[in-house]
UniProtKB/TrEMBL annotation:
Gene Ontology molecular function: copper ion binding; oxidoreductase activity
This protein's name: Copper oxidase
Residues covered by the Plastocyanin-like domain: 55-158, 167-287, 384-477
UniProt-listed InterPro entries: Cu-oxidase-like_N, Cu-oxidase_2nd, Cu-oxidase_C, Cu-oxidase_fam, Cu_oxidase_CS, Cu_oxidase_Cu_BS, Cupredoxin, TAT_signal
Region annotation Disordered: where it falls in the sequence: 36-56
Keyword field: Metal-binding, Oxidoreductase
Cellular component GO terms held in the UniProt record: outer membrane-bounded periplasmic space
Classification via Pfam families: Cu-oxidase, Cu-oxidase_2, Cu-oxidase_3
Keyword Zinc-finger among record annotations: no
């Protein structure tokens, strides 16, 4: 840390990331006029990703922790976060899902100069929304995320919400070599043009998932965050009935997930209420079965033998308090369409990089593998990126996302949250708002938002290989 700067308070507000359900974090009283000072340093580190009995892997970390420290902020309280770059390459930090000023969004070239090695940058914003968010680099995203740079960011409600425990699972997916080190080969053509860099080990809060100790009768607010580069997840809680309370930080109508599966693409978050109604001493698996034939046990809910915390089950969980999102005016909306093209088996036209791909492997030698509306933007962002469309400030945009490819894409919009209206012509229930909308192959999703935040904003796939290989665009609010 740069000790010469009085903005660096190296330990203040630091909360170490932990595995499982063994942590309960108390609410802090709000200090409406105070500025919450934090600091982060991105630097090389070591992490025991493969477990305590294996040698630590070389990784990149925030504050020497993989994942980085859990930042718990307060809704409506200004925050000042100073980031120091201890890497040998440029970096930035993107505060994923936070509706903040454009200059604080962390896209190199587009919203800020990149943070050079040895330099720092101070981000200042006031989070308007309570909920579950996260932070990560937006420079050399594929490598920096893949080597460990990510952390949870929780904005607590202005008034505490009653749960017995409030728990975060930040899930990361790693491609490890036989020696337990993070494998090289970032940006391969096969990954770029297909499903992305899916790994061979999933961790919860930086560790191989151990049993999660729980007590019968307790109600937990479990915040699930998928910080993987490319792995989709579909979680089932054996013997339990999770209730979805929020998606991507935005409260929704409480409901059970379809078919009991909680589906999270990369960058997505889901808050659930989990009532522990299992048998004392019992064990219940949490299974990820997104990929056909590749289901595995992510972790196990292990009940202690104590009697139930309550004599009878709790009533259904109440809805979380709404955030101050502007309501779209659908009758006077401006219509825009984003069409996703390319990839293997895509047959798409990449007009921005010379037309049809023909028989060549897309993504070879850093070439584009994907396009939006026929144009490819590769990398992480840069100065002078031409906007796909421009919106007048205050206008409602009705945005259609159309996936013409054979692959799944979690599409992330910066600076806004989208009201999800319909999927393949069917209305989406439960009043869902999302900043990352997962599109299955051939899906069409209609969303809407109010363009109340001026600036140039990125919209891209959060499968990092896909973004880097062209599945990215910019829109402008004037």
């Amino acid at each position: 840390m740069n000790s010469a700067s009085n903005r660096f308070l190296s330990r203040r507000g630091f909360l170490a990331a932990t595995t499982g359900l063994a942590i309960s974090l108390p609410m802090r009283p709000a200090r409406a006029s105070a500025v919450d000072e934090r600091s982060l340093k991105a630097a090389p580190s070591r992490a025991r990703l493969a477990g305590p009995d294996r040698p630590p892997a070389s990784a990149w970390a925030y504050n020497d922790s993989v994942p980085g420290p859990v930042l718990r902020l307060r809704q409506g309280q200004p925050v000042r976060i100073t980031v120091e770059n201890g890497l040998a390459e440029d970096t930035t930090v993107h505060w994923h899902g936070i509706r903040l000023p454009n200059a604080m969004d962390g896209v190199p070239g587009l919203t800020q100069p990149p943070i050079a090695p040895g330099a720092g940058f101070t981000y200042e914003f006031t989070p308007p929304d309570a909920g579950t968010f996260w932070y990560h680099p937006h420079a050399d995203s594929l490598v920096q995320l893949g080597r460990g740079l990510a952390g949870a960011l929780i904005v607590e409600e202005a008034e505490p919400v009653a749960f017995d425990r409030d728990v975060i699972w930040l899930m990361q997916d790693w491609r490890l070599a036989a020696d337990g080190q993070i494998a090289g080969g970032f940006g391969s053509a096969m990954d770029a043009a297909m499903s992305g860099r899916v790994g061979n080990l999933v961790t919860i809060n930086g560790m191989v998932p151990a049993d999660q100790t729980v007590r019968a009768g307790e109600r937990i607010r479990l915040r699930l965050a998928n910080a993987a580069l490319a792995r989709m997840m579909a979680l089932r809680f054996e013997g339990h009935r999770p209730i979805v309370l929020a998606i991507d930080g935005q409260p929704c109508k409480p409901h059970e997930p379809e078919d009991g599966r909680l589906v999270l693409g990369p960058a997505m978050r889901v808050d659930i209420a989990l009532d522990m109604q299992g048998t004392p001493g019992g064990r219940y698996r949490v299974i990820d079965d997104f990929y056909d034939g590749l289901a595995y046990t992510l972790t196990t809910l292990a009940y202690d033998k104590a009697p139930s915390l309550r004599a009878r089950p709790l009533d259904a969980p109440p809805a979380l308090p709404r955030n101050p999102l502007p309501e779209p005016d659908l009758h006077n909306a401006v219509r825009q369409e984003i069409v996703l093209q390319g990839g293997m088996m895509g047959g798409g036209k990449l007009a921005g990089v010379g037309g049809m791909m023909g028989m060549a492997m897309p993504g070879v030698m850093g070439s584009a593998a994907w396009a939006i509306n026929g144009m490819s933007m590769t990398g992480d962002g840069h100065a002078g990126m031409a906007p796909q469309f421009t919106l007048r400030r205050g206008a409602t945009c009705r945005l259609t996302l159309r996936n013409e490819t054979a692959w799944w894409h979690p599409m992330h919009v910066h600076g806004f949250s989208l009201s999800v209206l319909s999927r393949n012509g069917s209305p989406v229930p439960h009043r869902q708002w999302q900043d990352t909308v997962l599109l299955a192959p051939k899906d069409t999703v209609e969303c809407a938002f109010v363009a109340d935040n001026p600036g140039d904003w990125m919209l891209h796939c959060h499968v990092a290989d896909h973004q880097m290989a062209g599945l990215m665009t910019v829109f402008r609010v004037t």
